[in-house]
Amino acid sequence: MKLRRVLLVVLLLFGFYLLTQHLWPTGTVAALMQRYVPSMNGSRMEHLSGPLGAFDLNVANAQPAYDAEEQNNIAVYKRVTPSVVNITSTTIAIDFFYGAVPQQGQGSGFILDKQGHILTNNHVIGENYQRVEVQLADKHKYKAQVVTVDKAHDLALLQINAPNLQPVELADSRNLQVGQKVFAIGNPFGLSGTMTRGIISAIRSVRGPNGNAIDNAIQTDAAINPGNSGGPLMNSHGQVIGINTMIASNNGADQSAGIGFAIPINTARAVLDDFSKYGHVRRPSLAITPLEIGPDLADQIGLPADYGVLIQRVLPGGAAERAGLKGGTQRAALGNTPVMLGGDFIVAIDGEEITNVQDISSVMNSHKTGDVVTVTAFRGRRRMDVKVTLGEASNDRQI
Fold this sequence. Notes:
alpha+beta; Thrombin, subunit H
């Protein structure tokens, strides 16, 4: 019994000597403690050593919990990404030697229903497409049929034959507010499944990539780059409020400058409604040839208002002619451009001031063929209100 006690004392003394004289001075014990003992802030020190040297890394013990905003971002992404597609359009160009050269363009789109209908921009598929291909989020590719296009609104409707499709949820794009949070999901520069976030920075009318008017376009600072066109712009609930269409850049660079624009989803819904009912898009029209008037020109030709749209010509059988509006009768020239003066001078429609052709386009986009509007115009110095039943535009440029 006494021998055991003596041996235990000897071992304790030897251990103390080894610890204090050999291990502690070299830092071995400290390293072991740092490696395996958590620090007060929930992290631990890991010691790595090798041919390139030693590293002491401060490593968290566990992934921190996501805050409420991050959780919502993640939820929106997971819910909507399966509904966003990558679109590749192949067109044929003619080279210097008159040879046919295939060219490809890319963009985005989103699934509308389980029947495989997909909405995107018309400029994504291009004018002379030969083949349009859709790649889903699961990387499966399908040949797409172009069902219809609406060049005036820069929209295209495609369809694919694929199983288990997940459609998006569409919101109402009326009453959107500047400052409202938005998300964009698409394929910028071909990088599929990319999400960016921002706010609505303005609601304004702009000219689209092909010169078409986009009324009440949604301006956002969410990063939108080439390849995002045709993809969804969503509210904080992941509901689609617009179709990402174009970017603005002061330096001419083909990349995001913090100003992007989206077509309101209600515009697309109206186009789809027309197509489902009539087989084509019925754009309402006054059926006139317009001339924009500003203060200088109004003063020169003696008009009673500084701004408005002068009717140069009413198209035979069109809405304006049926309502009794008159076109010009006096030939004149603005520079090298021949014009007709003396027609009715439109200054308002349904009480909304008309200062240019884009104002009329905006009114048309908020109505349907067959709607009745009140056109306020001057005939000479006489102001009059005329009821006009809107007709159907016969081409993309008709007002």
